Amino acid sequence: MIKTCPKNANHSFVMYHQPKAEDEARIGITLSRKIGNAVERNLIKRQVRMMCQDLIRFDEYPYDCVLIVRFGYKEHTFETNKNNLEKLFRKATM
Question: Containing domain of residue 30, as a range?
Fold first, then answer.
């Protein structure tokens, strides 16, 4: 039987999470090749990585997560995307 992970989503991100398996939480970031070329995708990944470092403490956060960046990410500003990600992290811990 396949076990599904809880999922939260908004315009910029989809987040799957499950209880962490290690001492520190792990976050995987993925996005489609249709979002842009390699340079744009790497820029987005670096931005999301920095957002995660600002928003959570990896030793205290109770989940391992996979973040999928949606096409709507490019339509919003950095601050709006950061707020969207913060809402997903809060929703996961509720």
Answer: 7-93
Which residue type does 32 have? S
Residue length, the chain? Answer: 94
**What backbone torsions phi and psi does residue 60 show, to the nearest 5 degrees?**
-105, -25
To which H or E segment does residue 41 belong? Answer: helix 38-55
List Cβ neighbours of 44 (8 Å cut-off, separation of 6 or more). 31, 35, 36, 69, 73, 74
Q: What is the pLDDT of residues 22-69, one digit of tens each?
A: 888 888 999 999 998 999 999 999 999 999 888 888 878 888 888 999
Q: Is residue 1 a part of any domain in this protein?
A: no
Q: Tell me whether residue 36 is in a domain.
A: yes
> Taking the complete model, does pTM exceed 0.70, yes or no?
yes
**CATH number where 44 lies:** 3.30.230.10
Structure tokens at 34: 């249709």
Count of domains forming the chain: 1
| Residue 43: φ, ψ to 5° | -60, -45
